Amino acid sequence: MSNQINKKFRIAFAIWWLLWFAVHYSVVFNYGATKLQAFADSSISNFLLAGACLLIINNMRYYLPRQEKYWYVLAISFGLAVVWLVVVRVLLWAIFKSETVYLAMVNVSSTLRYAVAFLMLGCMTTLSLLWYTQKEQKEMDARKTEAENLAKEAELFKLRQQLQPHFLFNSLNSISALVTTQPEQARKMVHQLSDFLRGTLKKEEHQLVNLDEELQYLELYLDIEKVRFGHRLSTQISCEETCRLLKLPPLLLQPVVENAIKFGLYDTTEDVTISIDAKKINNDLIITVTNPFDPETSSPKQGVGFGLSSVQRRLYLLFARNDLLQAKAENNFFITTVKIPQV
Amino acid sequence: MKTLIIDDEPLARSIVKEYLKDFPQIELMQECNDGFEGVKAIQQHQPDLIFLDIQMPKINGFEMLELIEKPPLVIFTTAFDEYAIKAFENHAVDYLLKPFSKERFNKAIAKFLDQSNTGTSKNNTQSLLEAVPASPVQNNRIVVKTAGKIKIIPVEEIHYLEASDDYVKIHTKEGNFLKNKTMGYFEQSLNPGQFVRTHRSYIVNVQLITRIEPYEKEGYLVILKTGAQVPVSKNGYAKLKQVLGM
Fold it and tell me: Tell me: the pLDDT tens digits for B5-48?
């Protein structure tokens, strides 16, 4: 595409200068110069002027003035026209040293020549300025659209993640099973599930919440899982009194606990205990989530594998640190530690 | 007629059990908590129908089916499986999306009764497994049965694969295992950056290659860290060069 434009431009450019060469030639010839003089005059002038135009176009490709655009156009056309005129005159004088009549004519016509060159260069600068600005605008628009699309996709993905279809439908299925046999329990689970969903929907990304609140929310989630998996799941949540009012980003621990459930509960068949432990060390809130895993079916990688990268990313965006999330496997237990600096 | 329920959630099983009460001709033999139990129970009871969840501990529903030589008819019970639904539609007796109603359940049973009466069946489950987006990719593991035991092979432990009649022989440091699948299946489902089909009958884990030697005319041999030698065809050599960036 751009190659084609380039080719078209080159042809137009060449044709334009050939025409102008002819006009220049005939004007000089009609004013009484010889054919040779007219030819030399026209070719030197126009060749140099075309060169100056190319110089401007190329220059614009790499440097596009943003402020003082119009002064830039004026200054560059003015300056280049001066340089051009001097060079043309020097060359013509050097070639036709003894032909005073012709040189006199060159002298007289200097103003006109300058005016033409200035206009030509001015037009060329303006044109390429417009062309490149438009091109830049187009590229910027494309980038903007792409960024918007990416953001939209991310948003959709997040919404979907929040809804957790697997969890939601399985929970509804449990309720459906409970309705006939244990209606009270079914009703309780409807309430738990509603509270849980409300919690996911209302939270603002950037407002910090109390640890207390976040733990209650996690407990809700774990209680629902307990209904689904009978008494195979037990949980242990311990939190030092001093930590209860410490702050953390909302739903930050949710993926960590989901991960623990995924590998500790969904992928095992025995009774499992998932523990969450919160304490304060120096000025950091330290939360440790421990879950067993089955070494036969899942081999957790050391460090942050395990679908924890979103937590890592969020912590990085909030605190600009990459060392706040740590995960390790020890004797068939997977231990995730999240550190939240208290500001 | 005999049936089994294979699901890791007790409440989910209880609902199928409850709905089944209306069909006295279908006898529930056993409830299974995971795929391992499922394999054993299927061998033991030879059921005509199973209710199968996909997401289960140890091995998932598809991996379990792969281990059974003549799988019974299957009604899938699953909460959400965006990838497999197309395969269900084409090849399973039916699939029930949780939570499902009594009416929906009855419809599925009617379909099953119809199919088992007319005898249009058995290979259904085979074709389903071929149509399901491969499980090794999703889980990075391959499940095989060896000497009556179930073995889970993590994909990175595969040295190379070799075609062997109707089976594929999986070479690992713990020995060879046979899997009832085609080479094409593995070529498509394994990560092409790590596993290259070097030959009509071979797929190699490129991370284990120590050197490549010319062999006969136009052919090559790949030597693995384990000392194993794997043939490479002219075509395979081109693919190998591309993956290794030579």
Answer: 999 999 999 999 999 999 999 999 999 999 999 999 999 999 99
- Put simply, whether B152 touches A (Cβ < 8 Å) is yes
Quote the CA–CA distance of B52 and B92 in Å, as a whole number. Answer: 11
Nearest chain B CA: its distance from A193 CA (Å):
15
ipTM over 0.85: no
User: Which pair of tokens denotes residue A32?
Assistant: 């009484």
Across the interface, which of B8, B15, B58 has its CB nearest the CB of A177? B15
B153: contact with A, CB 8 A cutoff: no
Integer Cα distance of B55 and B78 in angstroms: 8
- Cβ within 8 Å, pair A299-B154: yes
CA–CA separation, B127 vs A321, rounded Å?
50
Within this chain, do residues A137 and A233 fall inside the same structural domain, yes or no?
no
Inform me whether the pLDDT recorded for A327 exceeds 60.
yes
CA–CA distance, B34 with B5 (Å, rounded to integer): 10
* More confident of the two residues B164 and A318: B164
* Mode of pairing for the β-strands spanning B158-164 and B229-232: unpaired
Domains of chain B: 2-131 (3.40.50.2300), 146-244 (2.40.50.1020)
Q: What is the spatial distance between Cα B13 and Cα B2, in angstroms, rounded to a whole number?
A: 16
On chain A, the residues whose CB falls within 8 A of the CB of B57 are 266-269, 294, 297
H or E element that contains B172: strand B167-172
Q: What is the mean pLDDT of chain A?
A: 85
Q: Is the pLDDT of residue A334 over 50?
A: yes
Q: Are residues A6 and A154 in the same domain?
A: yes
Pairs from A268-271 (Cβ < 8 Å, separation ≥ 24): A268/A292, A268/A293, A268/A294, A268/B57, A268/B58, A269/B8, A269/B33, A269/B34, A269/B36, A269/B57, A269/B58, A270/A232, A271/A231, A271/A232, A271/A233, A271/A234
Would you call B147 an interface residue with chain A, using a CB distance cutoff of 8 Å?
no
Tell me which residue range forms the domain holding A334.
Answer: 203-341
Which position has the token pair 């041999």? B221
CA dihedral sign of residues B179, B182, B183, B188: negative
